[in-house]
Amino acid sequence: MSVETEQHQSIVVRFAGDSGDGMQLTGTNFTLATALHGNDLSTFPDFPAEIRAPAGATFGVSAFQIYFGSEDVTTAGDAVEVLVAMNPAALITNLKNLVQGGLIIVDSGAFNAKNLAKAKYNSNPLEDGSLDGYKLLSIDISSQVIAAVEEFELGHKMALRCKNMWTLGLMFWLFDREKQSTIDMLQSKFASRPEIAGANIAALNAGYAFAETAELPSGIEVYKIPKAEQKPGTYRNMNGTTALAWGLLAGGQLAGLPILFASYPITPASNLLHTLAARKEFDVLTFQAEDEIAAVCAAVGASFAGSLGVTSSAGPGIALKMEAISLAVSAELPLVVVNTQRGGPSTGLPTKTEQSDLLQAVYGRHGDTPVPVIASSHPGDCFDTAIEAVRLATKYMTPVMLLSDGYIANASEPWLIPDINDYQPFPVKFHDQPEGFSPSLRDAETLARIWAKPGTAGLEHRVGGIEKSYETGDISYDPDNHQKMTDTRKAKIDNIADDIPLQEVAMGNNSGKLAVVGWGSTYGAIHQGVKRCLKEGLDVAHIHIRHLWPLPANLKELLSGYDKVLVPEMNTGQLVKVLRSEYLIDAHGCNKVSGQPFKINEIVHAIKAELE
Amino acid sequence: MNQAVEKLTIKDYSSDQEVRWCPGCGDYAILKTIQKLMPELDQPKENQVFVSGIGCSSRFPYYMNTYGFHTIHGRAPSIATGVKLANPELDVWVITGDGDALSIGGNHTMHALRRNVDLTMLLFNNEIYGLTKGQYSPTSKVGTRSPSTPEGSVDEPLSPCGIALGSGAPFIARSIDTEMKHLSAVITRAYEHKGASFVEILQNCPIYNDGIFESVKDKKIAADFRVEVEHGKPLVFGKESNKGIRLNRENLTLEVVTIGEDCPLEEVLVHDESNKAQAHLLAAMGGKDFPVAVGVLYYQPKAAYIDALFDQRIKVKEARGNGDINSLLRSGHTWEVA
Among A236, A458, A500, B61, which one is most buried in terms of CB atoms within 10 A? Predict the structure, then answer.
């Protein structure tokens, strides 16, 4: 192939194949090589709920999208420019996202009659001219792979499983990436099975060599994506789940507390349990409970006993936990509840993303049970929000709702690694003085109840879900006391507004025509959308809220400085409802519930419509 | 400090809260028994934690001058598991009832026993929902008339000890609220067992289900209606101590025999705590044909859950050293941007 190069500032690449084709592994390795190359990037793994759907089926297509470039990249991109389709089903389900003139790379060996029929193609799109509007690189990858790994004598089926690495090799050449990081990964992943490692590496090298030497159709060139300007320092690729898990470990250390992480498997939250279960060198114990309720209850029990109880789930599981969360509100015990939100209601879209549990987090319990609610806005941010959740839970003796979602949980980005020594510790002080002791004692400033843990002599006491006397902590049915306790629990949470940063404007002016207010994983799309509009000279600003309850003390005043407020959310309008009800402002929603993140263009259109 | 620590008394274990069960409730007797036996256990008072769910029995922790957590309906075994996981030094007690442990909290009871979490679970079985004013419970006999079953209940009750056996609990016993000596001995053994201990306590509700255990409690007739099982001893009962339980080896069922009449003493079944099949047969006794078995029905200790869990952690820490956040953040692939 003649080495021509195509200059792009940024590009969107999407790998798509059968759910057993290894597209997630391919994407992850392409991501690492891209990060090492020096591009900024953002990824979007998009996979079905079925673990191994029937081969060739459209509903079994698994995809991995990556947006990378020389500018700050905060979304996985709008329109795909390079599509890798390992079979007809992958092509038919992903073609609509490809820009006209975009590049399609296909394994022509998988475009047989059987697979075409499964994808409901009446004729072969590689031959019938229907792809004429695109650049097409059609290679019989299946045959190439079989030949490349022949010496390892894996058998036909196992040999074909190296297709993804062959394709990755080709992509590495096409995008001028180093393949060493993938070779290292394969050697470590298959350390105990050298023939598998060898075959995959041979396939990777063969794909790379094929691209280098073969005569490829004209118009297909090496993509040169300039490096991004990045702050100096040590970086790693970080996904939201790992960042959140490590943030909890860090939070535990900053609080000086062991953690009991109690959870029940649920998509897309289970990886948090797996990540922490593999970290027994830290003071974290993981407990896979018999159900969601048992998980939160074990966490509450652990907090009662002097550990930090943490539980985690997605929306349906959080619904089951609510009674126990209310117990922790009543008993005034710390608890961190992580909700990795997914498409709802009910089973909904378990592997897709949504932000439809905000109202559940803020209001969704019985009785008057205010709790702080925090949301992560991008993968690396999960590290800091997890620490903040631990800080608030232990300082205020309260459950804290920490919202992530399926998109941030699985997406990854280059992350400037922080130094834990730069974080201010917030050590917990257990009460240990028998003199004048009562379980109802409070910190005068924070209103937090004291934490007296079992095992401390002289502090034996009882707590429970029945209303307690403000003075003694004993059971009390007194009407005035219930009023006072309810008011105190509310005041304690309201006070947190003075202990969190004032709301800042992420981009744009501190007042003007339009504020675009977001929360959670829509950060990237809103950021890019506002940026484009600012470039066009529009009067717009981006405000992104991390502390959703209580809201930052200055937010009302800040929003009053704009003529209009637009709230894009992946739900039917939840934050907009909270803002309208709290501030009596005429905020408008911009809503999307397709299970897919916002595209930058959708935000741009909404901003323009609002300004018209 | 060589001073001998003054021995605690029943008063030290009584909280300052006024006990609020109905007059004549069996819970009073159980409370007294436990408050009295606690000093005998000779363990630090601050290490005793009583966790309960919801129901009449679940008010129990308020009356013990120890650590206590009155939680939510059915979930005490899960909360107690969390307490024990957080601090294995604590002695964790679960106080529950038939509705709490076997209806709304059945799943948690089953799994706490299955895991063999080191808990002492005391189930006060009065075969009725007391606190919600008398509805029939999962242990109520068929035909129980209650506000929710005015014509009598039609569904079969379950057996608490049978559930515990099926769940794999290594210590299972049954006793009676007012039999202080027997109850005290059974609970002491349950406490001393390291692992999940399950004790069903037959408890009278004088308001909604009065007298259902009268035949096993009434001193005049109880000897004919209950058999006190003891490891290694023949299952003999009756006012004259002339009745026995024999295993019919043909069809693997139990039968009541009269010793010296239709059966020699040597043929009477000898209680073997470690025999699970036998425990199932004993747990199921009762009704009109059999006496109710009380005492330790089954005891076969095995590795406790939390010990195994902590062993894993110790091994990982030995191999990797204590976790360091900064090293963790920099593990795997990293790169420098100048």
Answer: B61
Nearest residue, CB atoms, A279 vs list B85, B86, B323? B323
CA distance A601 to chain B (A): 31
Query: Shortest CB distance from A253 goes to which of B70, B90, B325?
Result: B325
Q: What is the pLDDT of residues A186-223, one digit of tens each?
A: 999 999 999 999 999 999 999 999 998 887 777 788 88
Q: Which of residues 35-54 of B touch A (CB under 8 A)?
A: 44-47, 49, 51
Helix H, strand E, coil C: the string for A365-409 is: CCCCCCCCEEECCCCCHHHHHHHHHHHHHHHHCCEEEEEEEHHHH
The values of phi and psi at residue A355, to 5°, are: -125, 40
Q: Looking at the partner chain, which of A234, A280, A456 has a beta carbon nearest the beta carbon of B336?
A: A234
- Chain A residues inside the 8 Å CB shell of B67: 454, 460-462
What's the CA gap between A314 and B272, in Å, rounded?
48
Which positions ≥6 away from A113 have C-beta within 8 Å?
none
**How far is C-alpha B165 from the geometric centre of its chain's CA atoms?**
12
Determine the length of chain A.
612
Q: What is the pLDDT of residues B186-231, one digit of tens each?
A: 999 999 999 999 999 999 999 999 999 999 999 999 999 999 999 9
Report DSSP letters for A25-44, one per residue: HHHHHHHHHHHHHT-EEEEE
Q: And the tokens for A580?
A: 């309208």
| The two structure tokens encoding residue B156 | 């079969």
A511 neighbors A561 (Cβ within 8 angstroms): yes
Q: Could you give the strand order of the β-sheet that contains B67-70, starting from the edge strand earlier in sequence?
A: A462-464, B67-70, B48-52, B91-97, B119-125, B197-202, B171-176, B292-299, B226-228
C-alpha A507/C-alpha A529 separation (Å) is 11
Q: What is the DSSP string of A218-235?
A: TT--EEE-PPPP--SEEE
Q: In chain A, how long is the greatest CA-to-CA distance?
A: 87
Q: Where are the extended beta strands (E) located within chain B?
A: 48-52, 67-70, 91-97, 119-125, 171-176, 197-202, 226-228, 236-237, 243-248, 253-258, 292-299, 335-337
- B window 257-316, beta carbon within 8 A of A: 309, 312-313, 316
Give residue-wise pLDDT tens across range B63-109.
999 999 999 999 999 999 999 999 999 999 999 999 999 999 999 99
How many degrees, rounded to 5, is the angle at CA B198 between CA B195 and CA B202?
A: 165
CA distances for A501 relative to A111, A372, A542, B82, angstroms: 56, 14, 17, 34
Cβ contact B107–A309 (<8 Å) = no
Cα separation, A585 vs A576, in Å, equals 9
Residues of chain A positioned with their CB less than 8 A from the CB of B317: 280-281
